[in-house]
Fold:
Amino acid sequence: MWHLYKNMKFVIKDLHEKIELEKLHRQIEKEIMESEKKEKECKLTEVEERLYEEFWTNEKLKKCIIDKDQKIASIVKELISYQAKNNKLKEEIEKQQEKILYEIKRNDGIHEKISFLVNENTQFSNIISEKNKEIKLKSIEIARLSKLVNYYSSCKYALPFKDREFLLSILELVATLIRKLLLMGNQKVRGTKLIYQIKERLAEYEDCFYRNNFKVDIDSKNLLYKIDQVLNQWSNYYEGYTLWDSKVVSLKDVQYVELLLKELSYICLYKHFEKYDQRVIKVDMLFHFMKENRKIKQNYTFHKFKKEMILMAQQRYINFEKFIINRIFLGDNYCFLKSFNKIQYDFQLMKTYGMFDFLYVYGSLENKVIKIGVTKDNLFYRYCRAKETYDYRYDMDDFSEIKIIESHNALNLESYLKRKFKQYRHPLFESTEWFLLPEFELRYFTNNEYQKDNDFMKIFNYRLDV
Structure:
């Protein structure tokens, strides 16, 4: 009995908790509805006001053009009616002239009628000439206004109007998708998919610039980075990470992202964007170009080439923006054709280019012990560590610097030397960097014989200077 009572108590407690959760859920929905109503009643932000001002100025221009067109149409109608009247008057004059010739001797009053009609005809001709002048002036003004419209919509450094409309439609779609996140609640799978869709749309936003050979300006980049940061925080929350950079989707954050999107839409509408000074192409086009120009081997596969481009885009040791555009959102990689055309493509040398800048060879010429290694800029620290390791095994004060070679391809030079002297690895050091070289091999460094080594110099002389 006591167990039954205890189970009943737990069931009742669970029911109470479920009822309270339902109440909370309804209350949250009410608060969301109320906040949405308040948002609709809120005043427009400064960006929206500017947008509205520019929009109304455009509307006024359009209205002016429509008014001018209507006036021209009315003038044309008047001209047609005047021409019809003129034709009728001419016919009447001809009839009256025939009557005058027939009855001129009998009726002198006809002369007065003829003169009156002639005067009226001259008046009508003067009116027609004035209207023609007005039409010419209006047509000149319309041509000037149409030139202005064409200039502002298709300037040399302006993104075409169709693309601007496309960008605005993407931003509107992103705004609606972000509002949907408020209704997701704890539906983590659907929330993650929705954030992925938002990132895909924003990647399309970036693609629109690169397709047209335009740069994404600094203001837009900063706004996109901020949006990406918030999306990553939401994504971390939905994926179950309890990190400092994971956040629940809140109304305040959604409003913040909407404000960033409004700023982006304002930039899309009115800013002039800078073009790249060289042609931007996709990876597949670059692959076909390099194959046609024999920059890569004919048996090179596109899958391998695309993988290499992705790795190069992720490389942060040297500025690869001269070759590949550094994207904000994941999408198609865009490359600079001119830059790739200037270099010798060798992925094995490129992938670690700039990772380390110095190749060092330290050791003892008396004991014929050397250590080969690389560093970015801290040669003194590397020397101290190597000397410490050497002194632990040899009780001699003969450790010194043998050779320092500066090169962006230091890591490839190191791996080449390690392969070359693989058979001379020192048995006392449990490392691939320590070697026990014979006298003739030591001359490779002491007498600069490495300069006669074609394979070594090929790696050493490789450059990515564009």
About this structure: The chain has four domains: 46-150, 161-270, 280-345, 358-460. The mean pLDDT is 82. The chain is about 65% helix and 5% strand.
